[in-house]
């Protein structure tokens, strides 16, 4: 398959990752267009887009993904369908249900997860996960080739495994960030005073608190609540938080040290990241000095 020869329609392509996808394929020379609820939509409806396109990309909010897939599904016979949802199990189950309802419609389906936001400046080092394929092997091969040529990283991760991993990579990290950021806000110290005493190893946490808190909270709400494995992960987080709180409250230094040492075996296999963290701290320090 030559992507440049395909008509690519992006549902939800007026903003966020959807707008990035439109611009990306246009930069490759493909005819990429989009539908949107906004006035700048290039189609009157999502169904009209699906009728026009060879490849339909669903880049809508997680909460809208199942309904939009059902809306366009009747127009997808012998067409390609891609979803870029960051939660997979419920979306792929919806696709399989629709295949049973619309037995006369035979789409070719590829479910992927770009692990980046629309703010990236280049593809270098950014990861795209491939999670499910139903008859769209040629499309998957073409996408992988395209992404790899641009310096991206592609990886196959089965969709159940994907959601379990995202419970840790996204769910746990987002939960930790928002609780930590809320704690900082509630403690009510002057923000500039906090930053002024935070050297790069601490400042980097503030950088990411700010980055996540000031983005659209709807995305993070859907990741926390639509991925069924997140609840299990954050329940463990709560248990560990309570355990460590009790250790600190009783001022038991031996228990504190034992608590840390219990996980050193797990993180010891990732010891190389210590050097990486030093590199990041140096880069952040240089950036701060420029201001």
UniProtKB/TrEMBL annotation:
Keywords from the UniProt entry: Oxidoreductase
A single BP term in Gene Ontology: tyrosine biosynthetic process
Signal peptide feature range: none
Pfam family, one: PDH_N
InterPro entries noted in UniProt: 6-PGluconate_DH-like_C_sf (IPR008927), NAD(P)-bd_dom_sf (IPR036291), PDH_C (IPR046825), PDH_N (IPR046826), Preph/Arog_dehydrog (IPR050812), Prephen_DH (IPR003099)
Listed GO MF terms: NAD+ binding; prephenate dehydrogenase (NAD+) activity; prephenate dehydrogenase (NADP+) activity
Prephenate/arogenate dehydrogenase domain: residues covered: 6-278
Protein name per the record: Prephenate dehydrogenase/arogenate dehydrogenase family protein
């Amino acid at each position: 398959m030559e992507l440049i020869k395909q008509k690519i329609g992006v549902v939800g392509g007026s903003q966020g990752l959807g707008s990035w996808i439109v611009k990306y394929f246009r930069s490759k020379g493909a005819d990429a267009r989009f539908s949107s609820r906004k006035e700048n939509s290039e189609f009157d409806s999502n169904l009209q887009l699906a009728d026009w396109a060879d490849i339909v990309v669903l880049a809508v909010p997680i909460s809208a993904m199942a309904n939009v897939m059902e809306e366009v599904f009747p127009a997808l016979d012998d067409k390609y369908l891609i979803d870029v949802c960051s939660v997979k199990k419920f979306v792929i189950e919806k696709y399989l249900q629709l295949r049973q309802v619309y037995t006369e419609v035979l789409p070719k389906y590829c479910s992927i997860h770009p692990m980046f936001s629309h703010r990236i400046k280049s593809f270098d080092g950014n990861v795209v996960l491939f999670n499910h394929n139903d008859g769209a092997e040629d499309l998957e091969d073409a996408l992988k080739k395209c992404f790899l040529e641009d310096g991206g990283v592609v990886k196959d991760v089965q969709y159940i495994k994907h959601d379990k991993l995202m419970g840790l990579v996204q769910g746990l990290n987002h939960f930790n960030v928002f609780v930590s950021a809320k704690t900082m806000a509630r403690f009510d110290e002057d923000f500039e005073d906090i930053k002024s005493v935070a050297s790069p190893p601490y400042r980097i946490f503030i950088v990411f608190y700010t980055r996540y808190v000031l983005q659209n909270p709807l995305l993070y709400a859907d990741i926390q609540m639509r991925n069924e494995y997140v609840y299990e992960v954050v329940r463990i987080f709560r248990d560990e938080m309570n355990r460590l709180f009790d250790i600190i409250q009783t001022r038991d230094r031996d228990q504190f040290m034992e608590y840390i040492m219990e996980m050193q075996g797990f993180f010891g296999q990732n010891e190389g990241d210590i050097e990486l963290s030093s590199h990041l701290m140096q880069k952040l320090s240089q950036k701060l000095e420029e201001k």
